[in-house]
Amino acid sequence: MRNPFRIVKGLIDQLFAQQNVSQQASIVMLEPGDPVSNASNYEELVKQGYAGNVYSFASIGLVDKAVSAVPWKLFQKKTGGDRVELFDHPLLKLINRPNPQMGRSQFFEWLTGYYEISGNAYIYINRPREDEPPTELYLLRPDLIEIIAGTVINPVQKYLYGNSPNITKYDPEDIIQFKVFNPIDDFYGQSPAEVSAKSLDQNNGSKNWNLALLQNKCKPSGAVSAKSNLSEPQFNRLKESIKKNYGGENNVGNPMLLEGDMSWIPFSMSPSEMDWSGSAKMSAKEIGIAQNVPPELIGDSENKTYSNYGEARKALYEEKAIPLLEYYKTELNEFLAPMFGELLELDYDISKIDALQEDENKRWDRLNKAKFLTKNEKRVAVGYDDRDDGDEYDDGAAIDDGEENSGDSDEKSFQLADQEAKEIYYNAVETKRNDFVPSVNKQVVKRFDAELKMLLDVMSKTAVLSGLMDNVDAALDEHVGQWTKLITAIGKAVGEPFGLDSFNEIMKNAPKGYNRPSEMKGPEFFIEDELDYYIRSRSGEKIANDINRTTKTQIRVQLAEGVSAGESIPKLSKRLSELYADNMTKSRATKIARTEVIRASNAGSQAGAMATGLALMKEWISTADTRTRDAHQDSAHISDVKLDEDFMVDGEPLAFPGDAKGSPGNVINCRCTHAFYPV
After folding, report:
1. What is the C-alpha to C-alpha distance for residues 223 and 606, in angstroms, rounded to an integer?
2. How far apart, in Å, are the Cα atoms of 77 and each of 73, 330, 355?
């Protein structure tokens, strides 16, 4: 009997033709101006190495999504190595919206897909003029690129893109090429799919073999033997009967009924002939290895590399996504950032990637117990500056040797033990808040832009100057509903994740054997309901009206000055546009964004604590610097306040820092937070 693996191999075309080494492109063997074609068969790479294989498709998809999920930040470099983050800059806008057809996530997903399949990826930098910064970035398909060789010092003379006769020539400075290391080609990267070609061929072959068995077209699974010769009509009738009644997937397992002098002889495969099945499983692992993707993430549970799924996810980022992001960052900072003429530096931000986040409680606890670290070393570990009194080793009560505590209770307390622990806690909360500020700020700016557009339209339709302010006031009052919607959306978008974090951290340290009251809703629904009630009852509409009131005051001042100067409505409109450009969409938008993020984060934390059903106390935590209000510094000593009661801050009852029922002077730009501990 023929080996089934050889049968399969004969049915499938060779995936990739072997290439003659002498045909590989070397800069020293070419003259400037020589065209250099990529020897890889890109169409076959896509068909067999991506679209035609589930493991390769899953591997590349995981890498694409991991890379594209990571946001980017922009910094300006200062003397001494310091960096200042920029939130509103043309380069950052370009990264977040590379071209009219693509946002940041899709752009980096496709960039990574091209890179992983072909070993090459190309970004075209579109500039209005050579002396102007780029306005758009476009991805070029690797299979449509041909390189014109240059010299040893400048290997690429031109990039040709397209199919004849529609070919576009690009200068090297307009193209950023990313390529996988290829030891025998100076121009094109090594395709990871080519590296796993044999594994792909083997895996695809095994799938085709199984499909052929299902369709009953590859080989018979046995033979019918007759003791005497059959006539041609008998043979044909038996053949059609077997095909009709026993062939195909719908007839699997049906017993075969034979005439008296006939018998069934099943075929079987020897262990060596069965080896292709095990080889198919091994090839799936090899495909993942070529892409640096843990096997368990692509459904290969038999070849596990890590003890759990979480570790495998972390490995995907640490061993694959982050090195790729580092490569992208280096090239973008080398070639793209300098086109904007400033000391700019792009960087990726992995702080929101769940797979990479260390449990904050464990981190705080480990730092707190580390006797070999000084207070300043602990402060540096969580992002604080040194203190004059921080060079001593911390051997306070909060630090122990890991032995069991003596005492009557073995319940774990999560009360913050000292000022150092409070600062660590505050810094972690502030870091999470800062992640939300840029996106919220963008939404606030958009709302101000829409408001200005509406006001300019109202002013252009105002015929009598004396009625101008009344018309503007009426338009702003009508627009206040849009602010209410935005404040509500911010409250939920920021508050809910903070609420779940608060709930989970408290429940980790809840008394042993504690169960939430059965009548309580699930934490997600409870937190959502609490936030919804808070926003409806005393947050959304009140804050929107406060914003509107301040806007009216600022506009009245500007329009009054213009009217006194005898300005016409077009000039007053210009004055209003300048007010929005210089104030509303800059400093004021930032102030609103920070205030609302902090307010929503504290409201969410409060809701998360209430969702536990535990009897808890809460403690006000402020920042010990000159920007903190004196009354809020005093409130830092308030620790014996029940969860459902209010702090008294500067004579006002506040459920949490930033509570909207407080006066603007008591809550705007408040950076405080609060923590919880058991009664």
Report:
1. 75
2. 13, 15, 30
> In which order are the strands placed within the sheet that holds 120-126?
136-140, 120-126, 175-179
CA within 13 Å, CB half, 110: 15
Host H or E run for residue 237: helix 232-246
Q: Which residues contact 455 (CB under 8 A, 6 or more apart)?
A: 472, 475, 476, 555, 576
pLDDT given for residue 536 in this prediction: 74
Cα(23)–Cα(2) distance, rounded to whole angstroms?
38
Question: Which stretches in the chain have pLDDT values below 50?
Answer: 1-23, 200, 214, 216-219, 270-276, 359-361, 383, 396-413, 636-637
Q: What is the DSSP letter of 51?
A: I
Burial letters for 241-260: b for 16+ Cβ neighbours within 10 Å, e otherwise?
ebeeebbeeeeeeeeeeeee
CA dihedral 336, 90, 138, 35 (to 10 degrees): -30
Give the CA angle between residues 611, 617, 619 to the nearest 5°: 110
> Which tens digit of pLDDT belongs to each residue from 385-424?
556 666 666 554 333 333 333 333 333 345 555 667 777 7
Enter the DSSP assignment of 359: P
- For the chain, count helices (H), then strands (E): 21, 17
pTM of the model: 0.48
Residue 264: Cβ within 10 Å count: 11
Measured CA to CA in angstroms, residue 499 lies from 357, 415, 613 at distances of 17, 18, 14
Q: Which residues of 495-517 are buried (b: 16+ CB within 10 A; e: fewer)?
A: bbbbbbbbbebbbeebeeeeebe
